[in-house]
Amino acid sequence: MKIYEKAPAKINLMLDVLHKRPDGYHEVEMIMTMVDLADRLELNALPRDTIIISSQAGYIPLDEKNLAFQAAKLIKERYNVKSGVYIHLDKKIPVAAGLAGGSSDAAATLRGLNRLWQLDIPEEELMDLGAELGSDVPFCVTGGTALARGRGEKLTRLPNPPQCWVVLAKLPINVSTAEVYGRLRANQLTEHPSAKRMSKALENRSFQDVCGELGNVLEGVTLQMHPEVAHLKDTMLRLGADGVLMSGSGPTVFGLVSKESKIPRIYNGLRGFCKEVYAVRLLT
Ligand SMILES: C[C@@](CO)(OP(=O)(O)O)[C@H](O)COP(=O)(O)OP(=O)(O)OC[C@H]1O[C@@H](n2ccc(N)nc2=O)[C@H](O)[C@@H]1O
Ligand SMILES: Nc1ncnc2c1ncn2[C@@H]1O[C@H](COP(=O)(O)OP(=O)(O)O)[C@@H](O)[C@H]1O
């Protein structure tokens, strides 16, 4: 038997860090939503007790380090499944980009194996399993739009943003999430984006207010390490995006755009100096 799962990328509409916790993680308040840029997973049942991962992408680990492998191992052990699975990852989401590609693959693996092995695990339980794999995995299990607290695993559902275009651009820079959090001095932050105001903007379905409330305290760290990301943000705004922000720990920058007629100018303008540019819709 063979099944398919879609693993979409996320963007952070706002990301605030409250403080560093004794366990080394950071207490966050962030609002995330999904975009229509997705990896595709093909899951094939195997009669023998093994997990095999393959991908067309040459630059991700295919062993125990792959988050899809870790998700399959976790669910197999926890539910005492004796058969195996062969998972092919068709990667479309840029890697280590602040778009949660690996987390979304892990979440899609949990959802997919729940179906393939007919385990009937409730979504809440899949999210708890996801939290063992990474802070962003519980959100990727449910998708939609949500406020995330704790280290990212405590979720409150929110209305989706008004439909718009999302232009994503990633410079050829690798950013480690652990390093960005590690360099952040949470107690020295002077400005904080507001989860409350962004939630209100979403409730009011105001595209303008959503653009006005975009904010991410990790930008300060990543932009200091890579000033070219600030240049990319400025360029996207100059080309006509309505609101621009770095997603997660970066380095991907996204622009929200309400008018489709603006897209060719922004897309072509960015492609002039950035190879990885995507114009997609929100997943609403
Ligand atoms: C920054 C965000 C924003 O959505 O996304 P990305 O940029 O990775 O996409 C997330 O907080 C990333 O979530 P995720 O990538 O799942 O992080 P994890 O694997 O749990 O943790 C990686 C490392 O980041 C740090 N970390 C992560 C989450 C958190 N709330 N505080 C932290 O300090 C820890 O050092 C941890 O070892
Ligand atoms: N299925 C996967 N897809 C992408 N990266 C993966 C996967 N499994 C493990 N990784 C590793 O996870 C790290 C973070 O990747 P990713 O989830 O794409 O980034 P981010 O946390 O910035 O959103 C990379 O260094 C990559 O090698």
From TrEMBL:
Pfam families: GHMP_kinases_C, GHMP_kinases_N. Pathway: Isoprenoid biosynthesis; isopentenyl diphosphate biosynthesis via DXP pathway; isopentenyl diphosphate from 1-deoxy-D-xylulose 5-phosphate: step 3/6. It is an enzyme of class 2 (transferase). The active site is at K10, D136. It catalyses: 4-CDP-2-C-methyl-D-erythritol + ATP = 4-CDP-2-C-methyl-D-erythritol 2-phosphate + ADP + H(+). ATP binds at P94, V95, A96, A97, G98, L99, A100, G101, G102, S103, S104. Its EC number is 2.7.1.148. SUPFAM superfamilies: GHMP Kinase, C-terminal domain (SSF55060), Ribosomal protein S5 domain 2-like (SSF54211). Residues 200-274 form the GHMP kinase C-terminal domain. One of its GO terms (molecular function) is 4-(cytidine 5'-diphospho)-2-C-methyl-D-erythritol kinase activity. Keywords: ATP-binding, Isoprene biosynthesis, Kinase, Nucleotide-binding, Transferase. Residues 66-144 form the GHMP kinase N-terminal domain. Belongs to the GHMP kinase family. IspE subfamily. Catalyzes the phosphorylation of the position 2 hydroxy group of 4-diphosphocytidyl-2C-methyl-D-erythritol. HAMAP family: IspE. This is 4-diphosphocytidyl-2-C-methyl-D-erythritol kinase.
